[in-house]
Amino acid sequence: MTNDAMKPERFSRLVEAYGADPARWPKAERASALVAAAEPRNAALLAEAAMLDGWLDRYEAHLPGADRIHAAAAGAPDPGARLLDAVPWWPGLGLAGVGAAGVLVGALLIRQPAAAGDPDSYAWSYDQILDSGDGGAR
What we know:
Strand content: under 5%
Largest sheet: none
Shape: elongated
Number of strands: 0
Number of helices: 7
Distance between the termini: 85 Å
Structural class: mainly alpha
């Protein structure tokens, strides 16, 4: 980009971001922006940005008093406190849930003892599994 040719869109973004004061514009683009600022079509944009700059320059931030700061800090939660410390029964609930899941899985996977002499029984002894040669499959 040459020093004397700045696109209108770029000049508009520059003024919206940095305001109407050329001292606030980036040094690398200041010379070409000054050339663009001299064009009559940019006068309204610069006037609007100057008005906004004036409002922002006159604005004074009012900080809260020390009593309000201390009151807000007193009502804030302790940064060292964790949720699990506030609710001490959560780890026990997790342990109970794992235990219940284990009981359920065990009940579903373990075969019930067979009635004596019932040929359709699903209960196999360890010796029958080893002797069958098929791992217990029927």
